[in-house]
## 1
Amino acid sequence: MAQVEIRNVSKSFGDVKVVDNVNIFIKEGEFLVLLGPSGCGKTTLLRMIAGLEDITSGEIWIGGKVVNNTSPKERNIAMVFQSYALYPHMSVFENIQFPLKNQRMNKEKIREKVEWAAGMFGIEKLLNRKPRQLSGGERQRVAIARAMVRSPNVFLLDEPLSNLDAKLRASAREELQQFQEKVGITTIYVTHDQIEAMGLGDHIAVMSKGKVHQIGTPKEVYNNPADTFVASFMGSPPMNLIEKDDSILGFRPENFVPIDMLNADEGIETLEFFVTWFEDLGSDSLVYGNVKFQSSSSQKHVVSRLQSRANIKIEKGKTYTFAIKRQDLRFFDVKTGYKKNAH
Ligand SMILES: Nc1ncnc2c1ncn2[C@@H]1O[C@H](COP(=O)(O)OP(=O)(O)OP(=O)(O)O)[C@@H](O)[C@H]1O
Ligand SMILES: [Mg+2]
């Protein structure tokens, strides 16, 4: 186990900078999620940490040592890729033991290790099967067990669950988190799925175009986005952002509710909300429509998320008075997109 420090790290391919002066500090035993849209540099950063890609500038430290010039093997890192490939002609047991075979470990010890890793992921009954005799979720567990069997210092995962359907992904997330907690291994997990990031990470680093925009706990990143990029990347649907004079006003759909659901003494802003569309998601409902500001004549499109059991009757084509607590309003600079202090 080790702490990982990424200091002023940049990576260029030719003239194109794809990782731009990134600084991230990952404590020993921490679970960090690297979150960002496709092409923002997540895999490139992970490959630099693993030693599979040269670093153009900056330093990567693992366990208190600069590893810029250390081979992947010496870094003792386990990495699971999106397209984890199991050896099809080998049994599950042989797949998992594979990384240990080169270490001249005796057979007894190898069996012990493989059984430990298999037990961690609930695949101990599958050890004699071939990969083709496994479900997608089981294969994925074998790939992770194989990566972990060497007891690495750092665990890197690059969208390891993207081949799984939504239900399997949720249970795999839970397993992975329990495993990480049990073993306490420093973990960096790449995803472009913000729901995955919210559920898994101790901290989330939100990236766009090679830059880290914010690092924080899932709560911090969700409730107090550092800029409009983070505000519009986190949440589904994302934060409502409305340009207004010299500010961009932001509020989460779940904080934009019919006025009678809030206590006016708490300090609220009200808006007349013309409903154009309604979507029932089961436990929640999304209400789409337009709001109008006195200061501008144009209408702004926004969305509200209401709990279905709130039992509020909303109809398309009607106008309702909605409100937001002042403490739930966020303000961003119109030019830079950075968060401003509330005013
Ligand atoms: N070997 C390479 N040569 C040139 N450009 C590359 C190379 N590898 C990656 N890139 C570019 O660097 C950028 C970042 O790629 P990277 O694979 O790190 O993105 P990512 O965030 O992992 O995206 P995704 O979510 O789609 O996997 C992309 O624009 C990509 O085209
Ligand atoms: Mg990638």
Note: The longest strand covers residues 268-280.
## 2
Amino acid sequence: MPRIADRVLQLGTETALDVLVKARALEQRGRRVIHLEVGEPDFPTPQHIVEAGVRALRDGHTRYGAPAGLPELREAIHPGAPDRVVVAPGAKPLIFFGILATLAPGDEALVPDPGFPIYASMVRFCGGVPVPLDLESPAITPRTRLVIVNSPCNPTGEVVSEEHLRGLAALAEKNDLWVISDEIYRRIIYGPEPRSIAALIPDRTIVVDGFSKCYAMTGWRLGYGVFPPALAPHAVRLVINSNTCTAAFVQRAGLAALRGPQDAVAAMVAEFRRRRDAIVSALERVEGVRCKSPDGAFYAFPDVRALPLPAGALADRLLEEEGVAVLDGAGFGPRGAGHLRFSFAASLEDLREAADRFARLVSRL
Ligand SMILES: Cc1ncc(COP(=O)(O)O)c(C=O)c1O
């Protein structure tokens, strides 16, 4: 067999997708499984957005379009400076393009830990070295080139404080670093609206955002990056060399999402808040479990280190014995070890049932 290129051997994965496969196999054997593993809203895409997409298809928006995205959509995303905007099929490709455009082999990138596993995977793929980001004292070396911030964070739901953002911005200036600010959960927030580091250092920051989470559009595949002017043309080249453009009818649906009523977003966030309060208090009642209330996103990340079973084994037994699919925190980096991730993008009844089943398992340990 011909040799496989080393770079693909560097790629990691998302454990959510592996657990989903296991859970589906159990379901095929007739078990009912409560799915708290995958990070996607359980709400349907708001109707006016669906209608706009269908209308665009009927109107013939089915051809190649501008690689950087539909001009009206780019203007709606970043009024006054649409040239900075690059649209892509989801937020993920923009994380990839941002890393490809900024990191040379051997460069170090500070990545959130625990954090979205794709950051470290893509850094390694690009020949870089992921280094856990400690907001109190970031480990800057002469090889550091990039810092990745994710606020609110997957998996912890934490929002990076204004003070830490200022500290990171100053470090980036001093050490000549790029910043990728993944703000995909920006609008799913339970306190004051978080500030973006882009407001402090716009010419060093790539903002990654998209429609998947806040408009319940995961399957449409629509995201965008707001790039510093020096990087935007390179990101467009990456689009031209990979996906050519993003489906025009999908972008028209995105335009309707931004321009249309926002009450569906507000309703989803209000429902997420109810679910957050329910799951956090239910988990806190389980002996040996501590769970902070997340500031944003839709994940609870309880600390289970006081239980007599490691988190990975606990997640396995919770699925096998109680039919509840959650993730081992270790899949989000070394500092995620000893935690579980419960997505609360599920109904209140399912969340209550899942917490009861978890408590039942813990009582048997
Ligand atoms: C932090 C973070 N960034 C990006 C993404 C990917 O978003 P998209 O589905 O738009 O590619 C996710 C999805 O889980 C995420 O949690």
Note: The chain has two domains: 6-32+263-364, 49-259.
